[in-house]
Amino acid sequence: MSTAQTEFPESVEIKPSPSWQIKLLYDGQCPLCVREVNFLQKRDAGRGLVAFVDIADDLYNPETHGGIDYETAMGRIHAVLPDGTTIKNVEVFRRIYEILGMGWVYAVTKLPIVGAIANWLYGIWANWRLPLTGRPDLATVMGDRAKRIECENPSRCRVNDEV
After folding, report:
1. How far is it, in rounded angstroms, from Cα 118 to Cα 6?
2. Residue 23: enclosing H or E segment and its boundaries?
3. What is the pairing mode between strands 86-88 and 78-80?
4. How much is the pTM?
5. What is the pLDDT of residues 54-90, one digit of tens each?
């Protein structure tokens, strides 16, 4: 009597699905953004439903976060869903609040006209976010970041211009 054996290829890689339902990309140097993130973290209560990713961290890697580069993430709020889909603007808040059981807060933005107005208002806020929070413009923030990151690699950092 022979028994059939199921053979599995050795190269099969089983990737566990993430425990988070949405990955929020936020600016950790923005005081209002950090305040919102702190609120959302309390609502998440350690469940891990939301993964919080600080784009201001010098080690931020766009490839592991939906391909959203730092400059793009600084312009508008973005989030990544477990399937790799990226979303932005008010849709991010709507999804996060739904996941955390507070969907009623942004539910009205599902209506087409209200959603369009909310996105328009959010766009105004996003365009003025840096100066309203006492920070330099995006070009300056980007330049400072580039210098800081470059100088963390001593072989690329020039102390002076002497030849």
Report:
1. 55
2. strand 22-26
3. antiparallel
4. 0.81
5. 999 999 999 999 999 999 999 999 999 999 999 999 9
